[in-house]
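USER:
Class, as today's exercise, take the chain set out below, and explain how the chain folds.
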Amino acid sequence: MKKYFFITFFILLFIVSLTRVVFAGLGIPFGGRIISAPQAKEIIEAESAGFICAVEGTTFNIKSLSQKNSTTGPFLIPVGTKIKGIPSSGKLILGLYTPTPIPVTCTDPIGATTVVMVYPVTTFGVSRR
């Protein structure tokens, strides 16, 4: 009996690991309520400290609906991404993002720099309200 349990366990573990690799190639699903848009709170914090951030698109953070007190992001919708609704605070969003973050460089007038890492969104849709 234990022998079959371990064999079944390892087969399921193998299938789950393959599924994660397949989905990682397409993007990782995310969803929730947008809490900061058109700029993510990390970008807002950097700019309020005197930095100027060169963002090529729209950034935002979301509050996950499945994990009540967690926020995720920041996410980036790059310029040129097919838009299915305009992301704004309070709307629901569902989509896929790339698991490898890209840097957004922020500079201040003195020449100091800071980097904010954002996750690019590949596909998404937002609620109408």
Notes: The beta strands are 28-36, 52-53, 57-63, 71-78, 92-97, 102-107, 113-126. DSSP finds two helices and seven strands in the chain. The chain has a mean pLDDT of 79.
